[in-house]
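call fold target=Pyrroloquinoline-quinone synthase
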Amino acid sequence: MNKPLTAVLSPAELEDALRTIGHERYHNRHPFHHLLHGGKLNFGQVQAWALNRYCYQAAIPRKDAALISRIHDRELRREWVQRILDHDGYGDEEGGIERWLVLTDGLGLSRDYVISRQGALPATVFAVEAYVDFVARHPPVVAVASCLTELFAPAIHKERIVGLLENYDFIDDKVLAYFRRRLSQAPRDADFALDYVKRHATTLAEQQGVLDALTFKCNVLWAQLDALYAAYVAPGMIPPGAFDPSQPPC
């Protein structure tokens, strides 16, 4: 994890430390993303990425509901519930999970198969559930800090939109609606979470906790890409029962 703090940081110093973790550990640095955005993956490999990433997208409202269940601050609950609505949808708003399913639809994957997580890599499921469990078990300020990967998300979304459209003839703009919406949602969410952490992480233990939380979350995202790379790129060891592009599900 991170080097233990020896003194309480100022809010500005805490922000700098959090941003340093993101710059060093965010999953935009992972080789799998370079392959994805550079047009180096084949159709089946892109399918595998979208299928496995669905597990993470679908877990976000569960993670946020777990956090809300721990919060006694009504104003924080009122703010945080928007994240659940953003992903699950409400009224005529389809929500982020639905937009992700539009992507998997466009890649020829059955919705029932995607939603079932039947073809997901075991490591993907373990990493995602570890994240939900982490948020459910830790104090609110630490749980909030685990969401601060959103500080770095807009840059990767922009890169992904351009890379996928330029490099894959089976991707069109319609199926990238999830990423376009997150260009506005992620900065809003990140700004709120960063401000909350800077105001409420005031002790040595709390600050150490929020730094470790962001590191943990970066590791969750990185582990998912490790699993994809090992299964579908090199050496290509697909676990039994996981999605196999050479034998697509019916």
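return ok
The CA atoms of residues 119 and 242 lie 4 Å apart. The mean pLDDT is 95.
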